[in-house]
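$ ./design --mode recover --in tokens.txt
reading tokens...
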């Protein structure tokens, strides 16, 4: 295999090629559109998952991305999880930012994204070099930490803190995928909930754009997953459009406790699979 001079990209290219399904244009079926080894029923479940995670994020600003990366890690190899998650979340967050564009607070977006563009390059140097077992443990640990530990108090209006924090978060995102809870640290002081949700969506859109571009340069073959990605983005947009109408009726305290329990169970199962 020719990696085009980018040694780090080989692992991602091989991982994607293993899941590419050979097709016969004369007898094209649903299975032919899916990555090899992914059953149609599981593909449908992932599309539904995208809808549900977008419902969650549209209502509470974050949480859906962590659940998405945790479940993807149960279905795909760790070297596929982060690139695939980035592409799906790019579409999901872009749709949410478009719908709520009038509430985006651009002063936060500028400085955090500036640091993020640099952090993506740094994190990309490590993303493909971790062993699959280690990467799976990192993903599980990250989900547990962001679910249960309190977020650090950071001065969100400091431009230096925004640039440095954006860089660190983007670098971490190249390894663990979902860093929405960390991004939220810098904008949680916004008093208007609409501003919070819209600004967070725009920040995650840019971060995932940087991430997807870097994985393309590293050689990840997104084409093998394109039909699945498109279907999950479409269902995610539908979830964004109706999320607040459905979930505002659920008591927030009850929902958040149930959500934390689900995330914890998924993360513990990831650790069990990696360690035993």
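writing sequence...
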């Amino acid at each position: 295999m020719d990696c085009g001079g980018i040694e780090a990209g080989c692992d991602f290219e091989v991982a994607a090629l293993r899941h590419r399904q050979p097709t016969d244009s004369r007898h094209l079926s649903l299975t032919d559109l899916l990555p090899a080894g992914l059953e149609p029923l599981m593909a449908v479940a992932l599309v539904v998952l995208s809808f549900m995670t977008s419902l969650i994020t549209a209502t509470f600003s974050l949480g859906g991305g962590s659940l998405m990366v945790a479940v993807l890690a149960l279905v795909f190899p760790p070297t596929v999880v982060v690139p695939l998650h980035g592409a799906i979340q790019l579409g999901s967050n872009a749709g949410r930012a478009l719908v709520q564009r009038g509430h985006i607070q651009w002063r936060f977006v500028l400085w955090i994204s500036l640091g993020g563009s640099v952090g993506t390059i740094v994190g990309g140097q490590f993303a493909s070099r971790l062993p699959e077992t280690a990467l799976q443990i990192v993903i599980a640990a990250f989900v547990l930490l962001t679910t249960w530990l309190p977020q650090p108090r950071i001065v969100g209006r400091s431009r230096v803190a925004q640039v440095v924090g954006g860089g660190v978060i983007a670098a971490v995102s190249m390894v663990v995928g979902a860093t929405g809870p960390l991004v939220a640290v810098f904008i949680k002081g916004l008093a208007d909930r609409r501003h919070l949700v819209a600004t967070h969506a725009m920040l995650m859109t840019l971060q995932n754009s940087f991430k997807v571009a870097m994985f393309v340069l590293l050689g990840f073959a997104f084409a093998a997953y394109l039909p699945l990605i498109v279907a999950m983005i479409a269902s995610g947009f539908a979830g964004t459009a109706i999320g607040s109408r459905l979930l505002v009726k659920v008591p927030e305290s009850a929902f958040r406790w149930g959500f934390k329990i689900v995330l914890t169970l998924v993360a513990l199962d990831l650790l069990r699979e990696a360690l035993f």
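exit 0
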